[in-house]
Amino acid sequence: MHMADVVTDLKGRIDKTLDDLKRELTKVRTGRASPNLLDGIRVDYYGTPTPLSGVANVTSPEPRLIIIKPWEKSVLKDIEKAIREANLGINPMNDGEVIRLPFPPLTEERRKEIAKQVKTKGEDHKVAIRNIRRDANEALKAQLKDKKITEDDSKRLTDKVQKETDEGVKKVDEIISKKEKEVMEV
Fold it and tell me: Residue limits of the Ribosome recycling factor domain (predicted)?
């Protein structure tokens, strides 16, 4: 690996880690009804597990309600079943036309619990970023040992690796604190 590639690779891996964190957090429930909560749900559509968005229109007309309108009424039961099996703690209400998902307000205790989970996800992703830093530093050490880079290059790139790592950790903190605020909102 070329010396500049080490830093490019590090940046790319840190970005992937941040994207992964953001994706995981879209599934975390806040007091608001977010259609993203349903992203992982697959509906049995003629024997094929299909994303919910592939069989229905999902909207959130008000902060505590999601409405799922299937393109074919025959899929209503399967959608309802998939939502129940997802254990979101929300009771789907099927009126034969649409499925309503009313979100009860979260209790203070539940919000604190969710905020704690959010913080844990953040910590896990910081660890991942630090592991990426370790890999990058080891790659630089190997290049120095094999005389592919000079001492000066090594020092400069190690500083750059640290700077990118600090930046990544700072972004994790920003993402987490924003999500914690959302969770704690009443």
Answer: 21-184
Q: How is residue 170 written in tokens?
A: 């700072």
pLDDT band at 71, cuts 50/70/90? very high
CATH number of the domain enclosing 57:
3.30.1360.40
pLDDT reported for residue 28: 80
Range of the domain at 41: 35-102
Please tell me the distance from the alpha carbon of residue 93 to that of residue 172, in angstroms, as a whole number: 37
pLDDT for 36: 81
Q: Report d(CA 91, CA 99) in Å as an integer.
A: 10
Q: Where do we find the tokens 């070329």?
A: 2
Question: Which residue, among 139, 30, 159, 151, has the nearest Cα to 90 in the 3D structure?
Answer: 30
Residue 149 — φ and ψ, nearest 5°?
-135, 160
Where does the pLDDT of residue 32 fall: very low under 50, low under 70, confident under 90, or very high at 90 and above?
Answer: confident
Which letter does DSSP use for residue 105 in this model? P
DSSP letters spanning 71-95: SSGGGHHHHHHHHHHTT-S---EE-
For helices 108-145 and 151-184, angle between their N-to-C axes, nearest 10 degrees: 170
Using CA atoms of 33, 37, 38, 39 in order, give the dihedral in degrees to the nearest 10: 140
